[in-house]
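Hi Y.,

Following your request, here is the sequence exactly as I used it, all 390 residues.
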Amino acid sequence: MRFTHESDVEAFRAEVRQFIADELPSEEERLERARGGFRTNEEEYAYTMGFQRKLAARGWLAMAWPEEYGGGGASHMRQLVYNEEMAYAGAPVGNMGVAWVGPSLMLYGTDEQKRRYIPPITAADQWWCTLYSEPGAGSDLASLQASAVRDGDDYVINGQKIWTSGGHLADWGWLAVRTDPDAPKHKGISLLMLDMKSPGVTVRPLINLGDQHSFNEVFFEDVRVPVSQRVGEENRGWYHLAVALDFERSGIGAYSAGRRTVERFTRVAHEHPALREHRRTIRHELAERAIEVNVGTFLAYRVATMQARGLVPNHEASASKLFGSELNQRLQLTGMHLLGMAGQLRGSSSRVGFDQAQFFLRSAANTVEAGTSEIQRNIVATRGLGLPRG
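Below is the corresponding structure, written out as tokens. Let me know if you'd prefer a different format.
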């Protein structure tokens, strides 16, 4: 088995590392920004968008997209290396417009929609949020009830969305609504592009366990959205949600960031002997986490190499996501074990240079967001192991 990439891919890795060294602030500042979140306030928003515009200038922001849509047309292995290095550095690269909106427009958008909405995404000129989940529709998203009633050339939207990341800073929203209340639940949904400044849109903050404001709940009261801002066919939105473009989806970011976390904890253990003394077994815990990071890395590499060979990873991608989410929770718990009572100190009170309590509290969401662990286990069981449904 060969554990190295092709020479051109490794050369690209070196280029990405140099860019990161030139353009990102110090590790201490990156840790502080990661603790606060990249989409929590205007300052963090400006930092995120400034960095993403530098990526856009190099053609990296949407590097997975086809070149005809302003992307880089990068191979799966180049995407893997890029995602690996950015996650290791803690770079603010997450972008809903790149992840959801652009790919859907490429597949289902009109020519006019592509001309209007894709260039601002690839240039990092606009920020998008995703308006999917509702109080009664999370993992079972097809149960959503926010309604869109046709009125001439507009839809009139009423209802509520929840857990909307960055909704208080977004220019546009990627909105799933019910356009046919009488159809079976998967067959009456449509996708709309919503100007977040539209009359009748109210965004309220949701403060998480770590006292962060990154999530929001969004209310719609007789909000009018032009029919021209619907993407794809009316009532076919559920089938458009599962964007089928062939982008790298290995989950490597969780393991690359995890490797950096293990290194940080190990450095702290060396620099503060008293921390090692209060928990003599911490070296064994750190060794376990380091092994798990390695295992997860190869789970992610397996997904990317399957895609590079023209195969479609299904349960393999779910296994990588599942292991990565739960690994980060174990990692952050190990950090709390390492620091002991001192791990409860917040912000500048921490004597080790980072707010471990914040990272620990934030990790609680890992097994819910982007597909719950229960859903991932079901996929692995049914599609991977061939087990019958219960």
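The first strand starts at residue 128 and ends at 131.

Thanks again,
Q.
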